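Ticket #4471: structure output looks truncated?

Reporter: J.K.
Steps to reproduce: submitted the chain below (314 residues) through the standard prediction queue, then opened the result file.
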Amino acid sequence: MSATAPRLWTRWVGAVTRREPAHAVAVVRIVVGVSIVAHLVRLLWTETWRWVWLPPAHGGLVPLNSGPLDWFGGATPMLVGGVIGATLLSSLALGLGLFTPGAVLLTTAGWWVLMGLGPNAGGSYDFLGANILFLLIFAGSGRAWSVDAWWRRRQGATALDVPAWPRWLMVWQLVVMYDTTAWQKLSSSWVIGGPADALWYILQQPTWHHFEMAWLAPIFPFTQLMTTSTWLWEHASPIIVVAAWFRATRGRGGWLRAQSNRVDPRRFYLAFGVVMHLSIEATLDVALFTPFTLALYAACFSGDEVRRVSNRPR
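Returned output as attached by the reporter:
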């Protein structure tokens, strides 16, 4: 026992202090920043922000929660509009990698304020985005594929590696999201042996779908297959962490590690996920769920792996 504790501590310190190129978290930063910009522009263009982020006295749908805006006189159109504008500018800077540390702090703060305004102001994808933004604060994502990195090169500075642990927490975020979602689907409509009609009913929800979906009736068995496949796929999400860890420790022995590194199950798992999420995006209105989730896919690969792929001759 006395020999085990120091060894575990050494491994823990090694994991926390491990560093890698910033290319993987840079992809996360770019996708999240651009997605928030597009989302806010859409809400401003359609005037939807007034329904969601203002109280009924100013055209909102429901009363708002108390929050930090109360310190400045409440959620008035001018104040909320100012927060939206500041968040829009900071998220644009985040996507560009311009003054990245300040940009991610301001985007995180603005996102949390807007998300907490009322019961209609924040959904599950909003919390997912907030979690990603929080991890980006520590990720050093502006050190690759950014204006900041370009300026450093102009000044003759060398590229800096970043801590790996924020990226690993992003991978865990993805796994926790998928697996808990699967456990919450313990109903006859999802589990094996039931009618597997969950996806069919989801696609018939008029508040979600982009267009009328009754044409799916002849291929109901296909929706059953996809329902079961999705449920099993979500439960299999821990394979991402295991495969990524096997790749990071490929110098160690073991038959399972060797087979995982030879086949790399991450690619098959994430390929299914890309098809699934793009199908959801094409048929249902799920706001930022798709880009936020797919942004985390980049975190499933180390900075070295992403850099090698980007530098591969075309």
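Triage note (M.O.): checked the attachment and the full token line is present. Residues 23-46 form the longest helix (24 residues).
Status: closed, working as intended.
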